[in-house]
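Collaborator request log, item 7. Partner lab (contact: R.S.) asked for a structural prediction of Ribonuclease Z to inform their binding assays.
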Amino acid sequence: MLGTASQVPTRRRNHNGYLLRWDGEGLLFDPGEGTQRQLTLAGVSATDITRICLTHFHGDHCLGVPGVVQRLSLDRVARPVHAHYPASGTDHFRALRHACAFHDVLDLREEPVDRDGPIAVGAFGTLSARALDHRVQTFGYRLVEPDGRSIRPDLLDRHGLSGPIVGRLQRDGEVVVDGRTVRLADVSEPRRGQRFAFIMDTRLCDAVFALADGADLLVIESTFLSEDQALAAEYRHLTAAQAGRVAAECGVRTLVLTHFSQRYDDPVRFHAEAAAVFSGDVVVAEDLMRVPVPKRRG
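Returned to partner:
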């Protein structure tokens, strides 16, 4: 959690910024002003970043782009870095990317998002986007790991398998033991891939629920408390109670609340509102906090 404020940073909260470590990927979401320094404070190397994902082009979600891009170039990050952002903001992104003079050696690959659906597929899984309901074009993101299989020790024992042959079975899908062919499906059971969702700046809409469906970890804005629900609706934001409702209805495992308005100084109230409707784990984000993705089921 590199920053957890909303429009105005506070003494304790920087503008937005979130880094998801996902196998070999490092997805940097919504780097607001000051993100480069927050990365340093968090002990994050620029080489950890493989993708930059912007939900929209309000300043608290994108003003950190110039510093981050220049840092990636300064550190001579060798791998390509992919940039996903709403297509309507292409001119904004290019202005941010080239905000000042620097020696640009970065292979930054712009991939504007203009519709719902998958935007990147790889060994890490599928990264998808869906349009949200805000005052400018805004997309939420969802990352889904491929389904796999969990080895069951009792079935290994039944088939007389142990040691290095188990690794070969996982790699090749089947092995021959004493003239018998044992397949991976014979000693394992299906395991659902992990799911992550990132939702910022929106009113409740179908896309919010679609993105959050079955998420192991949901990072979601909760700019307002219910006492200011009218303001939330006017400015197209969520309350903590609404975020809790989404988590409850979507079967989320860990709910992370963030993007707090500067008008509030007691984060406990956000936790209480969400926990009143959601019985799972609720985390009220703080700057530089690390939140683990829950372990795979099975």
